[in-house]
Design brief:
Residues 90-99 have a biased composition (Basic and acidic residues). The chain is α+β, with helices and mostly antiparallel strands. It has helices spanning 3-32, 71-103, and strands at residues 36-41, 46-51, 56-61. Helix 1 packs antiparallel against helix 2 (71-103).
Length: 114
């Protein structure tokens, strides 16, 4: 007599789970702006700090690299540090997303949009 209610109950659970996931995704998106990672190059002579979203927030450059006349080396070190920071930001974002999906019982390697 009430066979259809079982399916509606399952649908309600799925909708609730989807809403929870959406809320957690929104919170994670916000958190990504506050999580900082640091990339470096030249054995730490140049350090770049960015958010887990990849937004560059700071550069720390050892003054010793300015003693050289080779401007290109300095530019390459700065670019390398920024790229390293952005790569670490991507890794960190993926780690955080994996934690979220695993916590919701979803496959660890599931890719969700940011």
């Amino acid at each position: 007599m009430f066979k259809g209610l079982g399916q509606m109950g399952d649908m309600a659970k799925m909708m609730k789970a989807a809403q929870e996931m959406q809320q957690k995704m929104a919170a994670l998106q916000e958190e990504m702006h506050n999580l900082m990672v640091t990339g470096e190059s030249g054995a730490g002579l140049v350090k770049a700090t960015c958010t887990a979203k990849g937004e560059l927030k700071g550069l720390d450059i050892d003054p010793s690299i300015f003693n050289s006349d080779d401007k290109e080396v300095v530019e390459d070190l700065i670019l390398a540090a920024i790229k390293d920071a952005q790569s670490k930001a991507t890794e960190r974002a993926q780690e955080e997303m994996s934690k979220l999906t695993e916590g919701m019982g979803l496959p660890k390697d599931m890719k969700l949009p940011f």
